[in-house]
Amino acid sequence: MAQEKPINKRRKSGGYYLNQAELIDILQQGYQVALKRAALEFIQQ
């Protein structure tokens, strides 16, 4: 089963699902994943 990606902004209410600390954590995790994927892509060339 695919993991849902958190969304930070609600469309109609203008509120937020994540607080600042949670948002920073999610962004850091995403950066690490992107860095690993880029390294793998570079190695495979």
Number of strands: 0
Percentage of residues in strands = under 5%
The rounded Rg comes to: 15 Å
Give the helix/strand class. mainly alpha
Unreliable residue runs: none
Largest sheet: none
- Count of DSSP-assigned helices: 1
Beginning-to-end CA distance, first to last residue: 30 Å
Helices and strands, in order, run as H
Rounded mean pLDDT is 81
Amount of helix? 55-70%
What characteristic shape results from the CA principal axes?
elongated
Please tell me about this protein's structure:
With 45 residues, the chain is mainly α. Helices cover 56% and strands 0% of the residues. It has one helix and no strands. It has one helix spanning 20-44. It is elongated, with a radius of gyration of 15 Å.
Give a short synopsis of this structure.
By secondary structure, the chain is mostly helical. Helices cover 56% and strands 0% of the residues.
Keywords:
single chain; 45 residues; mainly alpha
Summarize the helices and strands and which ones pair or pack:
Elements: H1 20-44
